[in-house]
Amino acid sequence: MALLEVSSLSVSYGRVAALADVSLTVREGEIVTVLGANGAGKSTLLKAILGAVPVKGGGITFADIDLTRAAPHKRMAQGLVLVPEGRRILISLTVEENLLLGAHMRTDTGAVRGEMNAIYDRFSNLAERRHMPASCLSGGEQQMLAIGRAMMARPRLMMLDEPSLGLSPLFVSKLFDLIRELNAGGLSVLLVEQNTGKALKVAHAATVLELGRVTMAGEPAALAADPRLQAAYLGGG
Ligand code: ATP
């Protein structure tokens, strides 16, 4: 079943067309990756799905609800969450305060505590530093905190904007393991990545954006074997 349906979406910043006629589907339980060069419109797509930038044309349906013009908090209440590029952790707040921020829309405070403990079980580095400012975490640990914070909202679809950017190879591996694990637990994922090879390995479907338009879409294995994609993003020729 389609969880997220983006159809013929257009977004402009003034006279700059950032997205034109973009369509994409995320089915329940899938990881879908969006690839493309800098400036292709990937972040704009995630922002439009979250409602952070206005849509000029087309539609966004999530769990059969038309959210094209809904306010961001309404979308979040439906189970959409974004882990933004650069993580946007509040470094002067403690690890725990950052996690609690992710749960600010929830009223089931008892369950919130239980989930926080589950996150601490998963990330011992966060548990050990729960009362320390987030500034004491490494970049990789901050990315785990950003994902933990997003999990606290109990999302149905997690959107990740270039989560591997700036991470050490060890943390990149850990990050992709985590994405796989969360997905195996039932979470659907929309993953924007510049690490094309790893993203295609983890994803069930892939879409390539160029200058705001979809130029390729389909099965990751087929895209990985496509000479155009190899030349542009996989270092092949
Ligand atoms: P990156 O990997 O660099 O983040 P991207 O694929 O996410 O790139 P976007 O950030 O979505 O691309 O940008 C798409 C286009 O829209 C680019 O031409 C960019 O310059 C332009 N753009 C993005 N944000 C704005 C803005 N706030 N105002 C004007 N133009 C913008």
From TrEMBL:
Pfam families in alphabetical order:
ABC_tran (PF00005)
Q: Name one GO molecular function term.
A: ATP hydrolysis activity
Q: Does the keyword ATP-binding apply?
A: yes
Superkingdom in the source lineage: Bacteria
Question: Which stretches make up the ABC transporter domain?
Answer: 4-236
Keywords attached to this Swiss-Prot or TrEMBL record, sorted alphabetically, are: Amino-acid transport, ATP-binding, Nucleotide-binding, Transport
Q: Which GO terms describe its biological process?
A: L-amino acid transport
SUPFAM superfamilies per UniProt = P-loop containing nucleoside triphosphate hydrolases (SSF52540)
What's the family? Answer: Belongs to the ABC transporter superfamily.
This chain's protein is named ABC transporter ATP-binding protein
